[in-house]
Every structure is written in C-alpha cells, then in structure tokens.
Amino acid sequence: MKDFVISHKKIIIFLAIIIVLIMIFTTTEIAVTTSRQVNSVDDINTCSIPAGKIKAKGIDVSRYQGTIDFNKVKSDGYSFVIMRVGTSQGGKDANFDTYYKNAKDAGLDLGCYYYTYATTAVEAKREANEVLGYIKDKSFNYPVFFDFEFSQLMNYKRVDENTKMINTFCKYIKRGGYYPGVYTSNSIYNNFMDKRTLGVKWDFWVASYLDNTYNSNKYSKSFSIWQYSSNGVVSGINARVDMNVAYVDYPSIIKKFNSEYKKIAVS
Hints:
This protein is of the alpha/beta class. It has helices spanning about 1-35, 70-75, 95-105, 120-135, 160-175, 185-190, 195-200, 250-265, and strands spanning about 55-60, 80-85, 90, 110-115, 145, 180-185, 205, 225-230, 240-245. The chain folds into two domains: about 1-35; about 50-265, TIM Barrel (Alpha-Beta Barrel), CATH 3.20.20. α4 runs parallel beside α5. The radius of gyration is 23 Å and the shape is globular.
C-alpha cells in the first residue's frame, strides 16, 4: 500500500509538471503570434466587431446625387459620407474628386466604394490596383469598400470564386495602406459568399430595407454599417439618397490601423 501511495504521488507530480510545461509553451506561442502581428501588413486586424449601438449616421453618394452642399448635410445630423470612387466599366466617378474635397472641407468623415463588374479574382486584383490609383494621396477615416452586387455574381455555384474575389480585393487595398471593407445586399451576404470565413476577416456594410428605420437594432450584431434606406431626404441634396448607420467608431479604428501600418512600413 505504501509503494502504491508513493507511486500515486509521483504520477500527480509528473502530471503537474506536464501541465506547467504546456502552459509555458502556450504562453510563448501566443507571445510569438502577437509579435508577428506587427511584422506584416497582412496581419494587421481589419475586422471590427459591431458594438450593437449606433455610433454615427451617414449617407453614401455618387454622381447621381448631383451638386451637394456638404455643410448642410453635416448640419442635418450626418457625420460621415461614403462616396463612389468609380466602377470597373465606367472608370472614376465624375464627381468623386469634387465630393471628396467639399465633404472634407465640411468636416465630414469620409469613406469610398468601388462598384465591381469583375467575375474572377484576377479581375478583382486589377480593380483594387485601379482604386489605389484613384485614391492616391487621399485619406479616409471610413473604409474603402468593394461594392459587391453585380447580378452575375448571384449564383450558388460562384460561392468559392466570390469569396476569392473579396479576399483578393480587400487584401490589395490593405497592402496599399487603406482599411478595406465589403458592401453588399443582405441576400448576397447570406447566399452567395462564404460569410463565415469572410465575416471574421473583413468589415461588412450591408443593405437591407425590410426594416427601414435606423432606430432598429436588427443588424447591429452582424454588420459594421447598415444601409437601411435608399430613399432618404437630406438637406443639401436635391435627390434621393442612401441612408446608413455605423455600429463601430471608424475614425478611431482607422487611426489605430494607420498607426500600426506606419510602424511596419518604417521598420
């Protein structure tokens, strides 16, 4: 019996040592992983977790909104504007540069989006490089969005290719020094891409007009920005306009992204 007790104690001590060693190795691995995150642009986090509470109200615009008085837009209670930079069939939006300057002068937070007609990851890469050319020397404190709503992309057999396209576009925008994101409809998000893998890599701005009141929290746990209406009326704009609410503080998030990106670029 005595020998058994001694053996039993040895086993307990041995197991305790094993547990301690596992904890040490795990902690070391986490530390190494954390260290790697500041050594590669690709490893900088570009997926914000929606807060569930509205942080800001904004609009998105393209040349179809015509001349805009952005000072009136801001006075009407909107703090951000996401403007169309262009499309892969039509080139740069005719009003992009004017909107950018005037919205910036009005003190609005700025983002942009690019409407894709691509059907392959190779084409998505070309589009990302085109966007980087259009926005060179411009700064944004909202994401550069891949507008993913082209009708030919809505095919269940395209889920893998659609996912590759989104990953490719966002990756190259990120490498270009900008915080990427994806704009799409609720239907495409749920049916024509691998949202389970994409949703933990990139931020999503999603359109759904089934509950078109921004006071709803229906989407606040899934999307960083919800476009709740395409029929808004806003001071300073003589046309209907898309209405949005943001559930994350993008100016703070992108300020942190820019700081981390610059640290890597300098090192």
